[in-house]
């Protein structure tokens, strides 16, 4: 599959060639296509060659990826074919890349198999946080189930503290001297008791 730029300024002689292969896999019982290699040609001579990795999809699907690049920050799906090649001098990045090599109908892409992993770092972090929250909830429910009521062990009879009301009499009126054998003693006239109920 060749992508030619035609008469666009300095890109007039540039051609991007995609070498696609198709294979039948018994486990999936269907044909799969894969991007095997990418070549950059300028004025009919190969300037750079990149081996493609992990770019594949069922033959009846298309392949889509946000970035297909030779740069490490985009996960480097394109790898220079050899250390001695001029590919190391090139940096190739396709943005919003979609390709389909076979079973094309009416010039439209089929359903796309996306390159996004099912276990991206964000998804893994969400799963870990969900697990932590579930553990906290399970511990809280365990503590609530085993919580014992205070009514089983203590009978609380709540009544206000009661103090007998005492008269505001003079201290001299409250005691009466008793005389016996030279010792002076006193006896309280009002013998009221303070009672407290708990």
TrEMBL record:
It is a single-pass membrane protein. The keyword Membrane applies. Residues 117-154 form the V-type proton ATPase subunit S1/VOA1 transmembrane domain. Residues 1-102 form the V-type proton ATPase subunit S1 luminal domain. InterPro entries: Ac45_acc_su (IPR008388), VAS1/VOA1_TM (IPR046756), VAS1_LD (IPR046755). This is VAS1L protein. GO terms for molecular function: ATPase activator activity. Belongs to the vacuolar ATPase subunit S1 family. It holds the Pfam family Ac45-VOA1_TM. Its main location: membrane. One of its GO terms (cellular component) is endomembrane system. Keywords: Membrane, Transmembrane, Transmembrane helix. GO terms for biological process: regulation of cellular pH. It is found in: Membrane. The chain crosses the membrane at residues 118-141.
């Amino acid at each position: 599959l060749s992508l030619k730029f035609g008469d666009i300024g300095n890109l007039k002689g540039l051609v991007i060639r995609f070498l696609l292969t198709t294979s039948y896999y018994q486990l999936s019982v269907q044909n799969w296509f894969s991007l095997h290699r990418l070549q950059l040609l300028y004025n009919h001579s190969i300037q750079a060659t990149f081996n493609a990795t992990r770019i594949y999809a069922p033959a009846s699907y298309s392949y889509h990826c946000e970035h297909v690049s030779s740069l490490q920050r985009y996960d480097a799906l394109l790898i220079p074919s050899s250390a001695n090649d001029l590919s190391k001098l090139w940096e190739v990045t396709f943005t919003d890349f979609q390709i389909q090599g076979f079973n094309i109908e009416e010039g439209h892409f089929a359903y796309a198999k996306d390159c996004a992993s099912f276990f991206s770092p964000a998804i893994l972090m969400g799963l870990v946080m969900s697990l932590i929250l579930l553990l906290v909830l399970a511990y809280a429910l365990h503590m609530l189930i085993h919580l014992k009521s205070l009514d089983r062990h203590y009978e609380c009879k709540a009544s206000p503290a009661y103090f007998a009301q005492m008269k505001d009499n003079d201290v001299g009126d409250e005691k009466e001297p008793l005389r016996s054998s030279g010792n002076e003693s006193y006896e309280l006239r009002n013998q009221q008791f303070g009672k407290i109920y708990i």
